[in-house]
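Example 3.
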Amino acid sequence: MIVEVIAVGTELLLGQIVNTNATWLGSRIADEGWDAMHQQVVGDNRARLAEAIRVAMGRADAVVLTGGIGPTQDDLTREAMSDATGRPLQFNEEFATELAGWWQRRFGREMPVSNFRQAEYPEGAEQYPNPRGTAPGIGLRHEGTWLFALPGVPPEMQGLFDANVAPRLRAEAGDLSAIVSRVLHSWGIPESTLGERLDDLFTASTNPSLAFLASSAVIKVRITAKGRTEEEAEALIAPVEDEVRRRLGAAIFAVDRETLPGVVLERCRARGWRLAAAESMTGG
Amino acid sequence: MIVEVIAVGTELLLGQIVNTNATWLGSRIADEGWDAMHQQVVGDNRARLAEAIRVAMGRADAVVLTGGIGPTQDDLTREAMSDATGRPLQFNEEFATELAGWWQRRFGREMPVSNFRQAEYPEGAEQYPNPRGTAPGIGLRHEGTWLFALPGVPPEMQGLFDANVAPRLRAEAGDLSAIVSRVLHSWGIPESTLGERLDDLFTASTNPSLAFLASSAVIKVRITAKGRTEEEAEALIAPVEDEVRRRLGAAIFAVDRETLPGVVLERCRARGWRLAAAESMTGG
C-alpha cells in the first residue's frame, strides 16, 4: 500500500509556515506499515494542483491531500479533484442546510454564500463530518485509487485522518503489515567510517533496511523492518541490530524504538491519561 | 525565475524529522523575489530521485536539492544528478587529496575509501567548499537550467545556499525583482464572511495577490506584491491594504511586514548584534 501526501498552500512554498502536516502524516503512514515514496507541496493553483493529483494517482494506491478545502476563493482542492478525475462537483443539500443552521445558531445571521462551496464534492465521493471545523473531509475511490481531501488546520486534519482515512485504508490493505524502526545513536565515529564498517549489511539488506542519519557529531543508524505482526518485524531486526552493535561497539550510546503502541502510550502520557488493560478468558 | 526545492531523505517521508530545510529555502527564495510553484520530497532511492530531478528541470529555471551528498551508501544525489542529465561522474583529485589530508590531521588515520565519493561531481559541475562539513556543494548548469546539490544538515545547507547558490541565481535573474508581503491578522470574522467581503479584490488582483491563512479564530490576509524595488512593491501593496482595512475595520488587530532588510535586522537582534550605518558624499 503506497500512500502519497500532497500538502496544498502557497504559504508552504513561501516558507511562512512549516509543513508539519506532512511530518505527522508521514509518521502515521509509517506506523500503519504503509509505504511513502514521494511527498509534494503545491500552491493555491487549480491547474498545478490537478496535475499533482494526477501524478500521485499514477504512482500511489492512496493520495492524501491536506489544505485548500475551506470556504474562500483560494481553496481549490475540490475543483482540482474534480479536474483530475473528470468527476463533476455535486452539491450536498442536506449538509448545506445543516451548515446554514449552525451559522444561524452560532452567529445569528445568514451564512455567506461562499460557505456553500464546502458542501460540494466530486461525484461518487463520501463526505466526512469535521467536528473541529466546518469543512468536511472528502474520500473518493477513483479507478482503484483512494483520494482523500482533508483540511490544512492540523487538529482538524488529524481528527479526520484517524476517524476516516486510516480505517478505510486499513480495510483496503487487508492483512495489515507492521513496520518497526530501531534507531541506534552513535558518537565519535565519522559517517564514512561507519558506512564502511556496515557496508555489506547496507548493501545486502532490504528487510530490514539500513539508513544513516547524520547531524553534526551524532550519526544515527536506522534499522527498519516490516512483518505481518510487530513481533515478526522485531524478529527481523534483532540479528541485524546485534551485528551493528558488535561492529560499532561503545560508539553506540542510545537507542530509540518507536512502534504504534509506543506512540499511543507516549501520547496518553503527554495528556496525563493512564491506560488500564483488562484480560479475561485467555487462560494466561 | 522559478526555483524548485527537492528535499532528499527517507527520514522525511517517515516523519522522523521535520522538513525545515524546505521552509528555510522557501522563505529565502521568496525574499529574493523568485517564484516557487512546487516542492518535492523523495526518499534515498536513485531512480525515483533521478525522475524527480527530471520533472523539476522540466518546469523550473533552477532546482535546489538538499540531502543525499554525504559519504554513505544511501547518499545518492550525485548519482541521480548524473542519471538525470546524462553527465558521467568525474573525480576531483585535488579535493580528494585535501579531504584525505584533513582526515589525517583531524583523526590521525587514513580516510575511509567511501569518503572519496564526496569528490565526485557530474561532468561540467562546480564544487563549492563546505566550511561546516566535508561534503562540498555542487552546482551544474545543464541545458539552461541550474541544478544545485546541497547537504541536508541545515547549517551546512544554509551556508552554501547563501555563499554560492543565491549569488549565481541573482546573476541569472538579472534585474532582481523584490517581493514584499503584508499579513493582516483579523479576529472575529469567519473565514467565509471575510472571503465574501474581499471577493472582488481577490478575483481581480494578480500583483499584489491576496491569500487567506486560517488558524482557528484568527484569519490572516496576506497581500504579496512584486516590483523591481522594494519601494515599488510597497507602492503596489498600499492601496490594496487600505481597501482591506476599510472593509474589515476593527477586526484587524495586527500586521506583519517581512522584507529582506527586516529579516536581516531581526537576525542581528536575535544574535545581540548592533547595526551601524555610515553615509558620506550623498549630499544629504
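Residues 258-263 of chain A have pLDDT under 50 and may be disordered. Chain A has two domains: 3-173, 178-270.
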